[in-house]
């Protein structure tokens, strides 16, 4: 990110990259009960798709109109429209959690949209913004920029209640988000509460409570998530998430008409084991307990399928976690 003063305001050029295309196949990585996007003409089910190399390529301009009111404009060939909370990989409550929420496509999946124009007005403790953007999910070619369209719209309101609380609510219309169902558009609504505070001498705790809903084909399905991350000190981090999501049989790759409520509880821990002049290295683990209704037992082999992973975290530069109070015009 680069910024400078321009015409009485502040101009920023923003770039965010992901190496998922090089480290994760186009099929993504295994994740029970996850769905969204496609691979070789087939829907991805029980897998999380990789993110595109160009996660953000954007410019933003902010200008004060008075001591208490400002305006902003944002334009991006690849960027985030004003819909949903801060995306899961940027939320302080999930900064070290490598797994996407099961409700990702109900909550914050528009964080990489190929074509975004946003305008907004903000004060010291609030912000109102609206976007036109490309409602389609990224295609299977993860290295380039997809065709830019501005055929969807969204609006979002954010407020700081005090130094530790951020509230957000938004609504959006997504035209043809899924490539396999081009005639099907989605209405999405989200609301979230983010809270952060210090714990002990060097630690901090960040928490998010989030609701998201999709309406399409005459049906509305809901998702609810609560997650926290406790950086106990510079070496030890605990994180966890619990969520409930309503998914249709089609979402789960099943050939009948029904809706199921599925749940997942995950906990993880990371210990920093090394530090050099260029960064830090940590090792950890995460375990997940999934819960499905009896009707899905034959397909998953259990009503409580489990999963787990060991992980290595490498940070180029060590810095304290950002608290959930951070609020910039695009939520990063």
Q: How would you describe the overall organization of this protein?
A:
The chain is mainly beta. It has 3 helices and 17 strands. Strands 1-2-5-6-7-8-9-10-11-12-13-14-15-16-17 form a 15-stranded antiparallel sheet, with no helix packed on it. The longest helix is centred in the N-terminal third of the chain and has 4 residues, at 20-23. The chain is globular. It starts with a strand and ends in a 17-residue tail after the last strand.
- The backbone outline, from C-alpha atoms, is globular
| Number of helical segments with 4 or more residues | 3
- Structural class assignment: mainly beta
Main beta sheet: 15 strands, antiparallel
CATH architecture term: Beta Barrel
Placed side by side, the strands forming the largest sheet appear as 1-2-5-6-7-8-9-10-11-12-13-14-15-16-17
Beta-strand residue percentage: over 45%
- The share of residues in helices is under 10%
| Total number of distinct structural domains | 1
Radius of gyration: 20 Å
Can you tell me the CATH class? Answer: Mainly Beta
Q: Report mean pLDDT, rounded to a whole number.
A: 91
Order of helices and strands: EEHEEEEHEEEEEEEEEEHE
CATH topology: Porin
């Amino acid at each position: 990110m680069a910024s400078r003063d321009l015409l009485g305001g502040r101009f920023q050029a923003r770039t965010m990259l992901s190496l998922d295309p090089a480290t994760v196949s186009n099929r993504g990585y295994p994740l029970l009960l996850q769905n969204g996007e496609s691979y070789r003409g087939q829907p991805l089910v029980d897998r999380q798709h990789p993110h595109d190399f160009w996660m953000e390529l954007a410019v933003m301009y902010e200008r004060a109109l008075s001591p208490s009111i400002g305006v902003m404009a944002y334009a991006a060939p690849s960027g985030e429209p004003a819909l949903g909370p801060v995306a899961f990989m940027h939320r302080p409550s999930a900064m070290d959690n490598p797994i996407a929420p099961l409700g990702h496509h109900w909550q914050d999946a528009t964080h990489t949209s190929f074509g975004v124009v946003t305008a907004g007005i903000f004060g010291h403790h609030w912000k109102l913004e609206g976007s036109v953007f490309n409602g389609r999910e990224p295609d299977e070619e993860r290295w380039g920029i997809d065709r830019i369209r501005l055929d969807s719209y969204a609006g979002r309101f954010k407020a700081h209640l005090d130094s530790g609380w951020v509230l957000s609510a938004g609504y959006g219309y997504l035209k043809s988000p899924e490539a396999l169902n081009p005639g099907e558009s989605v209405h999405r609504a989200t609301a979230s509460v983010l809270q952060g505070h210090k714990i002990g001498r060097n630690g901090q705790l960040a928490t998010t409570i989030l609701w998201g809903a999709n309406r399409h084909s005459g049906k509305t399905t809901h998702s609810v998530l609560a997650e926290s991350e406790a950086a106990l000190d510079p070496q030890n981090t605990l994180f966890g998430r619990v969520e409930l999501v309503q998914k249709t049989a089609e979402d789960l790759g099943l050939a009948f008409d029904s809706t199921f409520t599925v749940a997942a509880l995950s906990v993880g821990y990371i210990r920093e084991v090394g530090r050099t002049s260029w960064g830090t290295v940590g090792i950890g683990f995460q375990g997940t307990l999934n819960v499905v209704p009896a009707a899905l037992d034959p397909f998953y082999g259990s009503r409580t399928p489990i999963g787990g992973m060991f992980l290595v975290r490498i940070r180029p530069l060590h810095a304290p976690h950002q608290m959930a109070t951070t609020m910039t015009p695009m939520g990063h």
